[in-house]
Write a structure and sequence with these properties.
The complex is a heterotrimer of chains A (316), B (732) and C (212). Chain A has helices at 12-20, 34-39, 75-80, 82-87, 89-97, 101-106, 109-114, 165-171, 190-193, 269-273, 279-286, 298-315, and strands at residues 5-8, 25-28, 47-50, 59-61, 67-70, 175-179, 185-189, 212-218, 225-231, 242-248, 254-259. In chain A, strands 4-5-8-6-7 form a five-stranded antiparallel β-sheet. With 316 residues, chain A is of the alpha+beta class. Helix content of chain A is 28%, strand content 18%. Chain B has a seven-stranded mixed β-sheet, sandwiched between helices. In chain B, strands 1-27-21-22-23 form a five-stranded mixed β-sheet. Chain B has a five-stranded mixed β-sheet with strand order 8-16-15-14-9, with helices on both faces. In chain B, helix 13 links the parallel strand 22 (459-462) and strand 23 (491-494). The radius of gyration of chain C is 20 Å and the shape is globular. Chain C has 212 residues and is of the alpha+beta class. Helices cover 41% and strands 13% of the residues of chain C. Classes of the chains: A alpha+beta (316), B alpha+beta (732), C alpha+beta (212). The interface between A and B is large, with 40 and 44 residues.
């Protein structure tokens, strides 16, 4: 870990300003992913802005009946929040499927959205990785790729986004609110927030340098059966091979977002239109352009089967 | 003490302390955070410096040059010692790959430098500044590809065995099986990383480390550093797990020693977790071909087991065929091992080396064979039991109650409820049960101890034996207490120090039996010294209730000790009882699994182990050994695999996120039953080991249960969902 | 069960040997003083927090994790470093009632926090009920993950009481309960390679039962 200077920001504005004045600064909230990566010098900020005391830790109703989740709300608190449990069960379930109790106690909502891939080659600084070192190549292509993406991949990168929470956010049409160093604010639909790797896999979101997430807003509840099914090798404390987040309405329509298959939460509205025709039909559209490796070909069938189980559970 | 005739009645047989369910005497220290592990020794008067290792970035080649100028200039850096600085070092006897020194890189993450700084943070940052210019060489990393060039290992490994005429018997057998199984490279993943503190005092070196085998480490560290073994003091009183990964000297101790010398201060070095799987040893992958021929009644007439594994040049094979020489009857039999030269990190012992991967394969094969014969797999195993060494029928087993384990286990588990493959369902779960035999040899290693009685009546045992979680502290205290007729709280135990008599150490599940036998021998000496001092006739002396008694005279032990105290020291040595009699431990594992009908995820629902392993010295710690081993077997069956990048030559998933071991949610309540057994051939303790037996066969029992649940036979571990999903029923 | 003087014997003895070492090695210059003070000031921060009821004031390299602050600066080595990357749970401590991985948080981020480590839960002769239950049920072997398991266990029961749901909680809108499945899931961030899980569950269940 390289040496860095440290400051505790006292307000949102101060934090944004501090970031704007130093391109090598990073915000730190829970730190559960950032410090992990800093120890390996995959992340090398020269300045950390501690944003834990700037009042972004509240969950409040919005005027239109939705919910505004402060960027600093811990995963545990979000999952345990009464309204979330009642009206956004998918989000609660996705959060609880992730990491461990200890990590959820620290990890923040914004940090969870920004967590980086768990590709083992990304984590090994001796190995080429376009995400870590643009232009160095992708070791996962032709290498150990069982965990990797099957769709939306590029010649430069086949990494997945590891977040469970983001899958639920995507299915629930969340909106990410941010502030920039100049004080300007914007709202980014979650669908647009994460990027596909393309030839710039090191750029994972549409956030601009220094731009800070202040909140994630959920639209009013949509009801339905909300299910998050995470498939993994061991029963807990593991990243998904595949996960399916679904909101299924009693008339058979619904929303599906899938994790463990792409560089971003994977949702295809056209696939949802097929839901009344069954999980297989929906899965075929969802993964129509899948380009798996030999090692992760199974994910295509696994998505279909998991989706079938989820739909069946929702109807049962 | 020479143990060359079967044990008769001795003081241990009183079983007032030995054999009793006594809680660990180190329990309060471990549960309150007061047990001090290697990296944690702290003397407030000492200013420790921190060493951070650098691992090679290539799997094979030569280091052309190293630039440490930036590292040396970095804030807080006291010294940088590179593998080029120290030059070629003598390698310890027990290491295959060198740990440090010279310009050759033999495997990925081999230690090539240590950066020493005032603080851990400074050392870690500076280590990243070391720049290396390599001349990379082509290596071999793919076991399957290397099979054809695999060679016969040296004869001491007994690579080829044959009795009768396997080929003829197999060809003529009416029912045959010929299948190939694979087991992957596995990582020990003990919770405490390899760690050492080294402090020089002139030419004397003190090292606090995390070692299963004090004397082996001491010799090999002295060799590697080129110093006199007598100048080296090693301490390892608490070890945060080993499983074979701390049997042999590791780089942390070597780097700490060099770092401390260069910095002129005591230096602490721990291997960073992501360095461990490639820097240290692992259980090598195997490819195993098994052929079995039987007559229609189910009697095995021919059995062959061949195994291929790889290692660095100079290494040895994974002895996966060994159990097949002893476990089942059959007149015509052969085994063969072949060893490929691979440039992956060093393969070496991991809990139950040989038997663990061997039984992963053999016990699936037995299950498959039973099915071909339309026999119950428990009955098939019972039918093919042998009470003698099948290669040498003149040679009986000292004890062998495999049948008892299988029968009792079947009864307790409800084995008769088993149905055909793919026929039980519970909601979304396909349910199946599986069985496997457990088998592991009982090894005998000399073991010494010193026992002192002081004027307070406290007995202190000193031996360089280690407690890696096995319960050595407790069973050694029980042994001394029993021998001297004391309650256990009058016994203090000091372990893991090279100033103490050399013991068996912790390995090969021999530690419990051998180290307590060594303590027994030392206690016999102490008893003699006490009797002699009191003028008692040692024949009729009784040690009981804190007193020593002879006829109608009774003297409290404290008084007998006198102001100077008394001591006894001895080493147990083994005669040829293990040659005249085959000494092994036996068991049966029963497992119930559920396989998710949609996703193919396997979850364990029930586990039972029945063990026949001689006298159980402490049913609490022995049970813990077995459930821990069963847990490791779950990992081996379902997800443990070091993923080899056959292009770049390293284990890719080299941390605890990538290499998954079982977590709480994976493990159900586990039942363990010990057969009531003593083995007078094994030692004066009449005990054997259980720590590895508990692992042997577990993974195969799970594989067999998955087959029973799904009808899908997977012969390649780990049995992950991708190997099942194609064969599961439709769910859409 | 343990000889009262056993610990003392080994400590005293090790102290004797290590003091002998000091006589020579202690001569080495104190490197910290030799550093150019100006440069490192930017990279250090003063922080105060309470550990096991005792206020601690430290001036730390910003990079120092809470784990290393406890172990290397305060010499509270009961909290263990198993992976240093949030992958094992051996470093679990309780901060303001919540369990976290001390390896993935900077010490300087804990100004004013109340930190409880394994040393603060109980000590030999005066054990916390969870520590006693771990001994009774043999919920450990090598002992290295044990402090983390115990800190986690204590916090897990509080989490259930506080109605924080888990992955296996059936109905999210109802109060969570202590069940074997709940305990196993919630404890899954604490890896025990020795495999004491089945016994740890028994220990936690017993403590949960006596508290109910």
């Amino acid at each position: 870990m390289r040496a860095f200077t440290y400051e505790r920001a006292s307000s949102v504005e101060a934090a944004a300003k501090a970031a704007a004045s130093n391109p090598e600064a990073k915000f730190i909230a829970g730190g559960t992913n950032l410090l992990d990566l800093m120890k390996l010098e995959i992340e090398t900020p020269t300045h950390l802005i501690d944003v834990n005391d700037i009042g972004l830790d509240k969950i409040e109703p919005t005027q239109d009946g939705g919910l505004r989740i402060g960027a600093l709300v811990r995963n545990t608190d979000l999952a345990a929040h009464e309204t979330v449990r009642r009206d956004y069960g998918l989000l609660s379930r996705a959060l609880l499927a992730g990491a461990s109790g200890q990590l959820r106690n620290k990890a923040s909502t914004a940090g969870n959205l920004l967590q980086r891939t768990r590709c083992p080659y990304f984590y090994d600084t001796n190995q080429p990785c376009n995400k870590r070192q643009p232009g160095s190549g992708c070791s996962a292509i032709g290498g150990f790729s069982r965990q990797h993406a099957v769709i939306g991949t590029s010649e430069a990168c086949i990494a997945t986004n590891p977040s469970d929470m983001a899958i639920a956010m995507r299915a629930l049409d969340a909106v990410v609110e941010t502030v920039k160093g100049d004080g300007s604010r914007r709202a980014i639909p979650i669908a647009d927030f994460h990027r596909l790797p393309g030839d710039t896999p090191h750029i994972e979101t549409v956030l601009e340098p220094g731009e800070m997430i202040t909140a994630v807003v959920l639209p009013p509840p949509i009801g339905g059966r909300q299910i998050y099914r995470k498939v993994r090798d061991r029963a807990s404390y593991a990243f998904a091979l595949v996960s399916v987040g679904a909101v299924i309405q009693s008339n058979g329509t619904g929303r599906i977002a899938v994790g463990g298959v792409a560089h971003k939460p994977w949702r295809v509205e056209a696939a949802e239109a097929e839901l009344p025709n069954g999980a297989r039909a929906a899965a075929h559209v969802l993964l129509a352009d899948a380009r798996p490796t030999e090692e992760n070909r199974f994910k295509v069938e696994l998505v279909e089967r998991t989706l079938a189980a989820v739909v069946s559970e929702a109807r049962g | 003490m020479q143990f060359d005739t079967p044990a008769t009645t001795n003081p241990i047989d009183r079983l007032k302390v030995v054999g009793q369910p006594i809680h660990r005497i180190d329990g309060e220290r471990k549960t309150t955070g007061r047990a001090i592990y290697a990296y944690e020794w702290n003397d407030p008067n000492v200013s420790y410096a921190y060493g951070y290792p650098v691992g090679a970035a290539i799997p094979k080649g030569r280091i052309k040059s190293m630039d440490v100028s930036d590292a040396k200039k970095a804030l807080g850096v006291l010294a940088v010692v590179t593998t080029l600085d120290v030059g070629d070092l003598k390698k310890g006897d027990f290491n295959t790959a060198k740990l440090f020194g010279g310009d050759q890189v033999q495997h990925y993450h081999q230690a090539i430098a240590v950066v020493v700084a005032e603080t851990f943070e400074q050392a870690r940052a500076a280590a990243a500044l070391v720049r290396v210019d390599y001349a990379e060489e082509k290596g071999a990393f793919d076991l399957e590809k290397a099979m054809d060039t695999a060679a016969k290992p040296e004869e001491s490994q007994e690579p080829d065995t044959a009795v009768g005429d396997f080929d003829a018997a197999f060809t003529s057998a009416p029912v045959t099986l010929d299948e190939t199984y694979t087991t992957p490279d596995q990582s020990h993943c003990m919770m405490e990383p390899h760690a050492s503190i080294a402090a020089w005092n002139g030419d004397e070196l003190t090292v606090w480390t995390s070692s299963q085998m004090i004397d082996w480490w001491r010799s090999d560290l002295a060799t590697t550093l080129g110093i006199d073994k007598e100048k080296l003091h090693l301490m390892s009183p608490f070890i945060g797990g080993g499983f074979g990964g701390k049997l042999f000297l590791r780089a942390d101790a070597v780097l700490a020693a060099f770092g401390a010398k260069a910095a002129g201060r005591p230096v602490k070095v721990a291997l960073p977790r992501p360095l461990m799987p490639n820097n240290t040893t692992h259980r090598p992958a195997t490819i195993q071909r098994i052929r079995i021929g039987a007559d229609r009644d189910g009697r095995i007439t021919a059995i062959a087991h061949q195994s291929w594994s790889g290692d660095l040049p100079g290494g040895g094979p994974e002895t996966a065929v060994n159990q097949t020489r002893l476990l089942y009857a059959g007149v015509n039999r052969m085994t063969a091992m072949r060893l490929a030269a691979l440039d992956l990190p060093e393969g070496n012992a991991m809990r139950a080396p040989g038997e663990a991967p061997g039984l992963m394969a053999l016990e699936i094969a037995i299950d498959e064979m039973a099915e071909k014969l339309a026999m119950d797999p428990v009955q098939f195993r019972i039918l093919n039991d042998t009470q003698v060494d099948p290669e040498n029928p003149e040679r009986p087993f000292s004890q062998r109650n495999l049948i008892g384990c299988l029968e009792l286990g079947a009864e307790r588990f409800g084995w008769n409820q088993r149905r055909g493959p793919g026929s039980r369902r519970d909601g979304n779960w396909l349910i199946g049960v599986g069985v496997a035999a457990a088998f592991r040899n009982n090894l005998l290693v000399p073991s010494g101890a010193r026992v002192r009685l002081d004027r307070e009546g406290i007995v202190t045992v000193e031996t360089d034996m280690t407690d890696i979680g096995t319960g050595s502290y407790t069973i050694i205290a029980q042994t001394a207490a029993e021998m001297l007729g004391l309650p256990i709280d009058k016994v203090a135990v000091r372990l893991g120090d090279s100033r103490f008599p050399v013991s068996a150490g912790s390995g090969g599940q021999f530690g419990g039996n051998c180290s307590t036998a060594g303590v027994y021998a030392a206690c016999v000496k102490l008893r003699e010294a006490i009797a002699q001092k009191l003028g008692f006739n040692s024949e009729d002396v009784v040690f009981e209730n804190g007193q020593v008694r002879s006829g109608n005279r009774a003297v409290p032990l404290a008084e007998a000790a006198g102001s100077d105290g008394l001591a006894g020291e001895d080493t147990i040595q083994w005669g040829d009882l293990s040659k005249t009699h085959q000494q092994s431990t036996f068991g049966a594992h029963f497992v119930e699994v559920g396989v998710d009908v949609a996703t193919g995820e396997t979850r364990i629902r029930r586990m039972l182990a029945v063990c026949a392993a001689g006298r159980i010295l402490n049913p609490i710690t022995a049970r813990s050994q077995v459930i821990g081993a069963m847990t490791m077997g779950v990992g081996g069956a379902l997800y443990e695999e070091l993923a080899v990048d056959t292009r770049s030559g390293f284990f890719v998933n080299h941390d605890l996120a990538g290499y998954e071991v079982p977590v709480h949610a994976d493990i159900p309540h586990q039942e363990v039953i010990f057969m009531n057994e003593t083995d007078p051939m094994s030692s004066p303790m009449k005990a054997k080991g259980v720590g590895e037996l508990g692992l042997c066969g577990v993974s195969a029992a799970i594989a067999n249960a998955i087959y029973n649940a799904t009808g899908i036979r997977v012969r390649h571990y780990p049995i992950t969902l991708d190997k099942l999903i194609g064969g599961l029923p439709d769910v859409a | 069960m343990q000889s009262p003087n056993q610990l003392e014997i080994s400590r005293r003895d090790l102290l004797i040997s290590s003091t002998a070492t000091v006589a020579v090695t202690g001569v080495a210059a104190d490197g910290a003083a030799a550093q150019s003070a100006g440069k490192i000031m930017d990279h250090t921060t003063k922080v105060s927090f309470t550990v096991n009821g005792e206020r601690r004031d430290l001036d730390l390299d910003n990079r120092t994790t809470l784990l290393d602050a406890l172990r290397e600066h305060l010499h509270l080595t009961g909290t263990k470093k198993g992976c240093d990357h949030g992958q094992c749970g051996a470093c679990t401590v309780i901060i303001d009632g919540r369990r976290i991985n001390a390896c993935l948080t900077l010490a300087v981020m804990h100004e004013g926090d109340q930190i409880t480590t394994i040393e603060g839960l109980g000590e030999p002769g005066n054990l916390h009920p969870m520590q006693a239950a771990f001994i009774k049920h043999d919920g450990f072997q090598c002992g290295y993950c044990t402090p983390g398991q115990i800190c986690s266990s204590v916090a897990v029961l509080e989490e259930i009481k506080a109605n924080i749901p888990s992955h296996v909680t059936g109905d999210l809108t109802r109060q969570a309960h202590v069940t074997p499945a709940e305990i196993r899931e919630r404890m899954s961030g604490n890896i025990c390679r020795c495999g004491a899980y089945s016994n740890i569950l028994d220990a936690i269940t017993e403590v949960a039962g006596t508290r109910a």
